[in-house]
Amino acid sequence: MMHNALSPPYAGQPETSARPKGDFIGLNAMSTTTVPIITKQETNMLARLAHPTMAITSLAALLFAVPLVAAHAETLHYTTTLTAAAEVPPNDNAKASGKVDATYDTMSKKFAYTVTYAGLTGPATAAHFHGPAAVGASAPPVIVVAGALASPIKGEAELTAAQAADLAGGRWYFNIHTAEHKAGEIRGQLMAK
């Protein structure tokens, strides 16, 4: 009976014998080649893994599982123009303007924003995202901008499911407050791009 180097018996030993010490064939003084010994059980396991049906099943699982995860992740974009006329009540500072660009990652729940503005009557004293509110209505702050308020303002926050729904529904607005316009100097309603 012929045996290859990867199957028992080892050096004339019967198939039921234990592995030789060292787990390598060819460790005698006459040989310079070492080949790992693979038992019959290990050979059968490798054969099952190499079987075309198993390989196709494994490949199919990878191909279909990854897109399903990715299909649920989405980055949504929001924007608004900030004006004095959009404030409630409106004010007369026609020189003041600004813009909000924001993204919301549906997988991580991260809301990231950049706000730019110019022409205010003085330094910004506060800035907030408010909601839920329709255009022209008022609502409490949802996100209070912390830190420096000089343009550009950048930040991020993690949203709850309810906050994300209000944002997607166009029920958030952003405004910037100054000492002269304590209720807000410029405002804009966030809308999906």
Q: In a few lines, what is going on in this structure?
A:
21% of the residues lie in helices and 31% in strands. The chain is α+β, with helices and mostly antiparallel strands.
Give the arrangement of secondary structure elements.
Layout: E1 24-25, E2 35-36, H1 40-50, H2 52-72, E3 75-83, E4 97-105, E5 110-118, E6 124-130, E7 141-144, E8 153-158, H3 161-168, E9 173-178, E10 186-189, E11 191-192
Antiparallel strand pairs: 1-2, 3-4, 3-11, 4-5, 5-8, 6-7, 6-9, 9-10
Overall description:
- By secondary structure, the protein is of the alpha+beta class.
- It has 3 helices and 11 strands; from the N terminus they run ββααββββββαβββ.
- It has helices spanning 40-50, 52-72, 161-168; strands at residues 24-25, 35-36, 75-83, 97-105, 110-118, 124-130, 141-144, 153-158, 173-178, 186-189, 191-192.
- Strands 8-5-4-3-11 form a 5-stranded antiparallel beta sheet, with helices on one face. Strands 7-6-9-10 form a 4-stranded antiparallel beta sheet, with no helix packed on it. Strands 1-2 form a two-stranded antiparallel ribbon.
- It starts with 23 loop residues before the first strand and ends with a strand.
Rg result? 34 Å
Strand content: 25-35%
Straight-line distance between termini:
75 Å
Report strand order across the widest sheet: 8-5-4-3-11
Note the main attributes of this structure.
four-stranded antiparallel β-sheet; disordered N terminus; 11 strands; elongated; 193 residues; alpha+beta; five-stranded antiparallel β-sheet
